[in-house]
Request: fold
Amino acid sequence: MNILNAGSKLAVLAIIIIILIILGYALFGKREVVKTSPLIGKEAPDFTLKQFDGGEIKLSELRGKTVLVNFWASWCMPCRQEARALEDAWERYKDDNVVFIGVNVWDEESSALTYMDKYGGQYPHGVDPEEEIQVEYGIGGVPETYFISPSGVIIDKYNGPLTERIIDFYLQKSMKPESDSS
Amino acid sequence: MKHESQLKRRTLVLYSLTAALLLAFLLTPAVSEAQSLDDQVNEISFQLMCPVCQGQSVAESNSNLAQDMRQIIRKKLQEGESREEIIQYFVDSYGESILASPPAKGVNWLLWILPAVAIVFGVVAAGMFLRKSGSGRSEGESKESEASGPENDYMKRIEEELKKQDS
Reply:
């Protein structure tokens, strides 16, 4: 049974073609480059961390230094996996105007201290008493690491366990003048 | 004729029902009442997806992150921030993928209009089908009645012949 006349058939065909063009554009059209965080390229949100040794560390006071901010938890296996690489990298970069900060999240203080005893803790580690820093930095899990330039701009973010080579790559990128790092 | 008018009436009812459904769907969010702080936290939490969960909103998830997010929403509401400002805060940190309903911009608008377009096309196609099949049937019926004309004549002639033979 023919339910469409010639005009209607043409209209349906035109609609199908338009829908296919739109879907084609949606699938293959120009897209934004997917970043690991929407904060990349923006000024790093300021925070004050309460260190486990009692002191405080404020990000905005570290202007002029390249900063690595690593989010971790004692129960996180990939964090243990990257701990050695972070300690070794800190040894190599500590005299190059680079600061490493460990941010302990979703954890118990006693477990975090035991972890630091076992896996190192030479650079500053602490917690945000307000427990907001992890949300402000868009953390979805641990470990995640931000690399911040001396001018306070987030250069990149790495999700997952770091190796020394990965740390070198991102730190070199963050230490460059901003016009070169993109 | 009667059949055609019935069909038109049915199509009209079908169109009206669809229009009423669409209107109800569009007007529902506009109906809101004064809400408690918990309700507001809940409402905003439902608009945000938990970044570490599978298809769960911040309101539905019990993960540490979702709990932190609900706490931040509550704090920001108490500080007087608007719903839009709070949602923007999370979008700035996690990107638009955190939104439970993608914003109607870029290719995202397709997600918003395609269901409505599909409904409209479905209704139009159903209407066309009903009209066409109805008119097809009435054409068939009139053909049937035309065909029955000569048949009747033939039967009359046979009856007349039989009567003649009987007499």
The interface with chain A takes residues 51-52, 64-65, 68-69, 71-72, 90-95, 107, 110, 121, 128-129, 132-133, 136 of chain B (CB under 8 Å). Helices of chain B lie at 2-27, 37-46, 64-78, 83-94, 109-166. Chain B has one domain: 2-166.
